Amino acid sequence: YDFANPLELGNPVAIYLFQGARIARLSRRLSLNYEWNFGLSFGWKPYDRENNALNTMMGSRLNALLNVSFYLRWMLTHELDLTFGPTLTHFSNGNTTIPNAGLNSAGLQAGLTCNFGRTAAEARVARRIDGPDFRPHMTYDLVLFGSWRRKGVAFDGNQYASPDAYTVLGVNFAAMYNFGYKFRAGLSLDGVYDGSANVYIPDQITAVGDSPDLEFVKPGIDRQLALGLSARAEFVMPYFTIGIGLGRNILHKGGDMDYFYQTLALKVGVTRNSFVHIGYSLSDFHMPNFLMLGVGWRFNNRSPHHY
User: What is each CA distance from 257 to 11, 169, 193, 254, in whole angstroms?
Assistant: First the structure.
């Protein structure tokens, strides 16, 4: 990637998982498609107070990559396709290092795809083939996750970055109604322990002109636990599922745990009823919370199995 500022941002290189499919068949040679990418980017020049103070977006050399693209695919020959469409990309370290404003980009992309060995019959945009009948049903997902995060603490009108990394542990139990092959939605009960919640700097008396000693104090564990309820929706694909959630903590002791939260998660199938969970949580649509890295299990899965 080239952001036209290599001295402050670097020229990162990314490796990622990707998955895409057709959305609609527009003609014999033309289709509308999507693709998403999730991975890691290396080679950033992170924030440094002495040598790179203007870069307040990226605090680490390693950052996650999220990308989604929508594009038209036009078959030029039986082996060559032209693609064109918009793309959105987000880079972030998931609040594991400060600063973590992240970097967003939007643009248009165009390219040529060479499909080696594709025959003329295979090149034609195939019509939809119906699979086995799908019976709507309930499934139940149990997810256990953990991560770590950094925290800025307010004191005397200023924000101070704590030098500590704080543990985050959580569990989600979601009851989901499967409407069809591609979509499920439901409610989730979300429990979380956030070791950074309600951390504070105690008041102290200092001489005029002196700087206070910054001691970061953790409260009792009861002020770092919360139980929330969220609405969930998931787009289901072969091997991968992308989900979003909107919820609020309903049982807590206030302070940092009193918030409205949003989640974005990728579930990667390991077996028919187990998966790896990679997610991220925001609060109030703009404040970074924490990564959600874990495993999950699905119960009462009655979906036809054909891949």
Answer: 37, 14, 10, 5
pLDDT tens readout for residues 119-132 = 877 776 666 666 78
Tokens 């991968």, residue located: 240
pLDDT tens-place string over residues 24-44: 989 988 999 999 999 999 999
Question: Is cis: bond before 99, omega within 30 of 0?
Answer: yes
Q: Is there a single domain that holds both residue 89 and residue 155?
A: no
Q: Indicate the number of domains in the chain.
A: 2
Q: What is the DSSP letter of 126?
A: P
Rounded-to-integer distance, Cα 89 and Cα 92, Å: 10
Spatial separation of the C-alpha atoms in residues 69 and 79, rounded to whole Å: 22
Where do the H-state alpha helices sit in 68-191? 120-123
Place of tokens 């409205």: 260
Rounded Cα distance between 263 and 293, Å, is: 12
Q: Does some domain include residue 132?
A: no
